[in-house]
Amino acid sequence: MGTVSGIAGGRVTASVDSDGAQLTSLTLDGGEYLWQRDGRWWPRCAPVLFPIVGNLRADRARSAQGEVTLGRHGLARIHEHELVGSGASHLTYELRSSDATRPAFPYDFCLRMTYRIADDALAQEFYVENTGDVTLPFVVGGHPAFNVPAPGCASDFSSWHLRFAEPWTYASPTISTETGLLDFGDRFTLLEDSDTLGLTHELFDVDTLTFEDVPQRTVTLVGPEGHGMRIDFDGFDYLGVWSAAGDAPFVALEPWCGTATRTDEDDVFEHKQGMLFLEPGESLTKAFVMRPF
Questions:
Q1: C-alpha closest to that of 179 among 63, 268, 56, 74
Q2: Exposed/middle/buried for residue 89 (C-beta within 10 Å: 0-12, 13-18, 19+)
Q3: Residue 262 CB: number of other CB atoms within 10 A?
Q4: Cα angle at 256 between 250 and 262, to 5 degrees?
Q5: Looking at the 3D structure of the chain, how many domains does it have?
Q6: By the number of CB atoms within 10 A of the CB, which of 83, 108, 185, 226 ranks highest?
Q7: 176 pLDDT above the threshold of 90
Q8: Residue 231: which domain range?
Q9: pLDDT in tens, 93-117
Q10: What is the CATH number of the domain that holds 188?
Q11: How many CB atoms are closer than 10 A to CB 35?
Q12: Residue 108 near residue 131, CB atoms below 8 Å
């Protein structure tokens, strides 16, 4: 663990660990909504995903700059980030390419993560800048996991559900539990003209549910008592939904700009689904908002 810093605003507080720039607490009126790193199921809370989401085939890919060798979800989550800005209601962390990152990812970059509380919600912002002299390929994603049931609720996991902005029909690609690769040719139906997906632990026997083009880029995790978490993720084309195998009392809602390697993709890094590109000196910002209720 690195250094944990806290912020507050209105009814909401949050804490972030400089190790991985990982959100470690998100409370509303003192109740903890964020999963608290219990190693019996999952020892993380909300890792930052960069410069990949999910897995590469055998953790390797070819790129214009040489071999990329990255474990699941990339390198941002395993490095210390520097706190470069702070205030009562915001924190900004920075990770720059270095001799520690280039052997795995042979590109120069600056990644800044900002957490900002406003209007009883927490925004998580990704800023990526190409600090090198060649095109930078990458994706970003979030991985916050939330307690189910939420604080103050006594309901069973299976009485909770995901609510979408409108009825739709969707079938998720399957994911290999051995390789972590996505098979878009083998899908299973999750929704049929419905705005509600009921949750069960068995639903996650397939590992992660992968959604594309979620209506209005918003989803709400809610239980029968009317409490839960809404995520608004405009600018992110994919959403992962995951819980650890067994009876883990949490659900991760993961806005992604890309996905794990598809079974029908080659191993060229630049060809990965959802890949973003920045020319030297260019930058971009993506953000999603977590609203506990």
A1: 56
A2: middle
A3: 17
A4: 105
A5: 1
A6: 108
A7: no
A8: 4-292
A9: 999 999 999 999 999 999 999 999 9
A10: 2.70.98.10
A11: 25
A12: yes
